[in-house]
Amino acid sequence: QVQLVESGGGLVQAGGSLRLSCAASGSIFSINTMGWYRQAPGKQRELVATFTSGGSTFYADSVKGRFTISRSKATVYLQMNSLKPEDTAVYYCRRYQLDTEYWGQGTQVTVSS
């Protein structure tokens, strides 16, 4: 079993920054992908940014140039700059390994205008 613990969400004004963290623990396997998704009220969960299995990164068009995903060992980060009200959502960390996906509990990000 894998546990994902997220932190770093909060309330910020438009134009501000936040940094999310997601620490994985438990039965960690070296071959994996980790990334961030978000879900706004009344909308489907969407991919924000992720590491691919080859180690490269992928970003949703809506966050390119503003968000940066990085990782250190079993922790993945999401640096969010120039935040907009439309970035308001619950942000979830996802890890995929050994044909199984794991999700964090989510952390709320609210951007005020």
Please provide a written account of the structure.
- This protein starts with a strand and ends with a strand.
- The radius of gyration is 13 Å and the shape is globular.
- By secondary structure, the protein is mainly beta.
- Strands 2, 4, 5, 6, 9, 10 and 11 form a seven-stranded mixed beta sheet that branches.
- 0% of the residues lie in helices and 58% in strands.
- The mean pLDDT is 95.
- 27% of the residues are buried.
- β7 (67-72) and β8 form a beta hairpin.
- The chain is built from no helices and eleven strands.
Sequence-ordered SSE layout with sheet pairings:
Blueprint: E1 2-7, E2 10-13, E3 18-26, E4 33-39, E5 46-51, E6 57-59, E7 67-72, E8 75-80, E9 89-97, E10 100-103, E11 107-112
Low-confidence segments, ≥5 residues, pLDDT <50?
none
Radius of gyration: 13 Å
What is the CA–CA distance across the termini? Answer: 40 Å
Annotation field: number of helices: 0
Work out the helicity level: under 10%
Shape: globular
Mean pLDDT: 95
Relative strand content: over 45%
